[in-house]
Amino acid sequence: MNHPSSCHCxxxxxxxxxxxxxxxxxxxxxxxxxSSNKRGNSSNNSSSMSSGYHVYKITTFCDEIVKxxxxxxxxxxxxxxxxxxxxxxxxxxxxxxxxxxxxxTYTTQKKSKEDTAVIHKRKRMxxxxxxxxxxxxxxxNEHLFHSFIDGNETWLASIANLPKDPLxxxxxxxxxxxxTNNLPTTSSSFSSNNVIPIPTLSYTLKYPxxxxxxxxxxxxxxxxxxxxxxxxxxxxMMRKWTGNNVILGMTPIDLATDYADLGxxxxxxxxxxxxxxxxxSIKKMSRALEEGSHQSTKKMVELLESEFSxxxxxxxxxxxxxxxxxxxxxxxxxxxxxxxxxxxxxKAQLRNLTKTEEKSQQLRKMMSSQDEAPLGGPTTxxxxxxxxxxxxxxxxxxxxxxxRIARDQNHSPLDYPxxxxxxxxxxxxxxxxxxxxxxxxxxxxxxxxxxxxxxDPEQTRRNQIQKLKDTLWQLEEAKVRLRQxxxxxxxxxxxxxxRLHIQKDTExxxxxxxxxxxxxxxxxxNCELWKKMKEEVTFVIKDL
Length: 544
Prior knowledge:
single chain, mainly alpha
């Protein structure tokens, strides 16, 4: 795991002294103008298109020094992605999702960028992201985070030299495409430029860690429960209150709007009432509905958004991030197993080549010892006998040629002249047999090409042995490093899960207390309002 780069900037010193306060105080829209040339116009006039984006002003209070910087939402997303690349074994705090931010607002997703409620909601969630990052014991020391909130340099320059982890590329690819079911093999796991294998998500561990397997199972069950049950229920509840359930282009109707419409109906009814006292009572009921129930319901929905629903979305992302961290650890363990398999395979190849090289050296020594024997002088008796025997065989072959030609005349593909010598006919027959099969012809061509390409097979074998030794050295180094990283990663993930569990218990307790207080306050306000209305209506009825 990467460790925070040491720095002594002002933000780091303030964080060490616990004297730094971070807050997003405002969100502003910045107008930008883009010009585009219209094709097909002879005058080549350019038309300007007005567009804009929102920036969030980050204010840091550091030793009575106030600093401000503005960041776009895309830069917040880039910061979080950069932290994930730097610390893949840490559970990075979530930010609001880009495409689902308008789920609980009054407007449709098409107009969400212009909606004030969406901007305020995003501002609150980004503010919590910065504060949670500043409170993290490891992330708070990262200089990239300091540069983000300080704003002394451009953000693109800050993230220019981030390390790239190929395992993270595999993990990110799994969230955008389907996971294949093919298990990786040693040959397919190696890239052409690197000897370290990269596993796929479908790889089955040979020696899985039971503790982490249990953690993955529990997180999967928790995510299923939170997404399929808890979040779905609270989304349904918020849709009923906010009216964010547009179907077939119908105008969304929420509970607060219902109260306002009911108040308008009572107002119209009071105008048709001839009795002034009854009309006044109906007007008071209309005013109570419009100013009381309507406003209190709208306020209750806003409080539930900020105090409850947004936190639910945060922890759903926390669960997804925790699952991603455990997947990364699984990939790291799979990579260690593939490295160990590759070491065994390369060692076997090295043993075979080494044995071949040893035999080649022994043969070379034998040949050199024979070459060093004394030459010249009279031939031995055995050599003379062999030469005499060879001459006799040639004479017999020459005598047998006419009868053999007559016997095989109907079957032989070649006609030999009668005065052809025996060695000539023997060489012709050997050449004919040599190319009689296409497979033999292909083998001969292959052998010739290999001979042209590999002019020195012994040197090639030595190069292969040296290359295997270098590869084994790299694999052994990777094995040691991966084991150390896996050990540190396991400890870090345990600490992260424990920290998340404590944080979740604390914040969910606050969420539920806030949820109860909001409803109690809402009920008390409406109860007092309608008690007062009851007294006034009773007084009017007595007078009648």
